[in-house]
Amino acid sequence: MELSKYAKQIGMLSALYPLLAILPVYVTWVAARFTLGYWPRPMFDDPKYIGGIVSFLDPLSSLILSGAPLALFFNIALNVGGCIAYIRRDKSLPWNFWCFLAMSITIWIGSFKFLQWDPLRVMEWFMD
C-alpha cells in the first residue's frame, strides 16, 4: 500500500505550513513600516487602522494564521497514517520517512518557539 502522491504533497504542505503562516505576518509588518514611515509599535499602531495595503494584508494574514490548527491536525494524521501504511507493508519505516518526521516536528516546534520568543515584537503588534 503506497501513499498516494496527493497525500505526500498535503503532508509536505502541512509540515511547512508554520513557515507559510508566519511569513504573511512579517510582510504585513514591513508594509506597515512603509505606510507609517516608522516601524509599527505594539499597542499604538493597530494593523486594522493603518490603511493602504495593510488593510488588505491584515485580514489575509489572520486567515492564514488561523488555519494553523487544521494544518497541524493534517500533519499529525498523515504522519500516523504514513507510519501505519509503511509498517503494514514493510514491517519497518524507511529512513526518508524518519527524516520527514523529524523535519516536520522540528518546524512545528521551532515555529511555535519563535512565536513565543517574538524578538521584534511583531506578533505582539499583530495580535494586539
List keywords for this structure.
5 helices, 0% strand, 128 residues, single chain, mainly alpha
SSE arrangement:
Blueprint lengths: L4 H32 L17 H13 L1 H23 L4 H23 L4 H6 L1
Helix pairs in contact: 1-2, 1-3, 1-4, 3-4
How do the helices and strands follow one another from N- to C-terminus? HHHHH
Strand content: under 5%
Query: Treating each run of at least 4 consecutive H or I residues as one helix, how many helices?
Result: 5
Main beta-sheet annotation:
none
Shape: elongated
Helix percentage range:
over 70%
What is the terminal-to-terminal distance?
48 Å
Low-confidence stretches: none
Overall SS class: mainly alpha
* Count of distinct structural domains: 1
Q: Report the average pLDDT across residues.
A: 89
Radius of gyration: 18 Å
> Count of DSSP E strands?
0
Write a structural description.
This protein is mostly helical and 128 residues long. 76% of the residues lie in helices and 0% in strands. It contains five helices and no strands. Helix 3 packs antiparallel against helix 4 (95-117). It is elongated, with a radius of gyration of 18 Å. The mean pLDDT is 89.
